[in-house]
Every structure is written in structure tokens, then in C-alpha cells.
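call fold(seq) -> C-alpha cells
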Amino acid sequence: MSQNVASLTQEQEESIIIAAVHDAFNQTDREFVEVARSCGLQDGSTAIMELLVHGFEAPMTHSSVPGCKGGVAKLYVANCGDCRAILVSGHRVKRLSEDPKPGCPKKRICTKKQVFGGGRTFGDLELKNQCAVTAEPEIVVHTLEQDDWAVVLGCHGVWEVLTDQDVAGIELNVMSFCGQGPVKAAKEVAAQAQASGSMDNVMVLVMKLGWAQPPERFFFQDCAAVCAWNA
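ret:
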């Protein structure tokens, strides 16, 4: 790189990070495929990741989040498959990933076989050989603000039975009303997904953003059960 990092614009920095994430996903897929071929495996896997980056160019008096002067904080979410990420900001929830859309030409869905993850997956050699799937992630960049206090990543088994607002409600009640942490909140999301009949993977990751606290009061009809789970 010929340019000094300090001289880059926010847009240039963002482009460099996005390119690095794409390279990481593609390198992971190449290594996955190499192992799969050597072991005779046809399976594939989906993935979702988040990357919190702070310090983007900003006026000295400006910060997108309190306590972090002189910079803009951004959250990068890369999704390869049928996982989902949501951001909880105050009582509101925002989706940070795009769900797969079978039938969309952009996703290159194979017509011979149902492809989980909307045509995005690591491995899956049979479909890779037909150019029916890709490991290229879809990346969303969100500029973080002072009310953003938690991010939730979950596998398909969570979202097939719980809505974004369901999950946000669980987070608010476990971490605010019940005073527990993100690990307990993640466990409760997984438990409620299983109790709701999910038959798929229900892995959950919750990241609490340290500059903001969840709202102090939030009413949820199953709060007693949530508190009991986290006791």
C-alpha cells in the first residue's frame, strides 16, 4: 500500500477492511475444500462474523459513541449462509445481515438440489463443482451510535422459530430486568428456540457494547421464566 493509513478517507479504510474480509472468507473456503477433497467429504458449512472497528477519521470534537473521543466506530457483519445478526439499540432492533433469497439470480441457486444458505457456503463440493454455491460473504457496515448496546449472532435454528423482536426482548429482560450478562442471555435465546420446536442448529453469540447500558425497564410476559433460567 503506497498511502499512509492516516491519510486514508473513511471510504478508503472501509474498502480495505471489506476486501480483507472477502479474502479471509475465500481463503477459509479454499482450505476447507482442500481438506474435504483429501477426506472425501461432501459437506458444507455456513458462517457469520462481526468485526468492531474504531478510530475512523472524524473531527476532534466528534465521536459516534461516548467515551471514545476523536473517531467513528463501525461494525462489519459478514454472512455466508443462513445465519443472521441483529443490533439492539434502546428498545429497538435492527437487522444487520441479509437473509438468503432462493430464486434470486445473484445467489446462483442450483435448480437440481435445495441449497441451504441461499447459495453461500464453505465446501459443499458437489455444488461447488457445478458453480452453484459461493463462499463470497455479504457484508453490511453499520456506523455505531450511543444507544447501540448489544449485537446478537445466531444460526438458522434460532431465526426459524423466533423473530428479531423475540430475541431482542429476551436480551433486554435477561441483561436489564434480571441483571445477567451476555452469556446467560445467549443461553436463554438458545433454550427458548429449542423450546419453540427448532430442529436446526441453535448456536448463539451475544456481544454487549460497553459504552451503553440496556434500558432499565422492559416488560416481557415470560420474564419470570427468564429470570429463573438465569438464576
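Helices lie at 10-39, 125-129, 156-159, 164-177, 182-195, 223-230.
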